[in-house]
Design a protein that fits this description.
mainly alpha, two-stranded antiparallel ribbon
Length: 177
Amino acid sequence: ILTSLFLFLTLRLILPTGVSAHCPLCVAGAGIGLSVARFFGIDDSISGIWLGAFLAAVSFWIDTSLSKKIKHFLVRPLTYVAMFAVTIWSIYAFNDIATSNFKFFLLNKHAGSVLGMDKLIFGMVTGGIVFYLVDLVNSFIIRRNGKVLFPFQRLLVSLGSMVLLSMVVYLLINYLV
């Protein structure tokens, strides 16, 4: 029995396993980074972009779990929209509680707005849409070629798109508006 257990554990460590769409460590790192963003004075629209990407990665995880049980083409978009809707609702619903009880603003009304939306919500929506579209294009490229074009393609393309979007929004908000 001990030999079988040793063999099993050895093979488990050596042989490759299934791949996650977005690694748990990356998502946890993004969550921690978002927690510290306001402390460092990062604009809410930029934080919102990364919050949108974080929500997208979490909704992709949920979609992966749901798609094993429910085989329907609308599971992914509905999971995505539900994740964003619940998050935006909770931000508005709990903003007053956080402000009055803890003197902490979930939405900073003094930061202004972009296109009539709070900067955080604008960033979330923008980041979420771009992240979803980039993932669709990336999946298409992988399917078309039958493989990834370079190591860590999903991670680098997703991360690169968020960095690029953050720079564009920063320039638009600070220099053109």
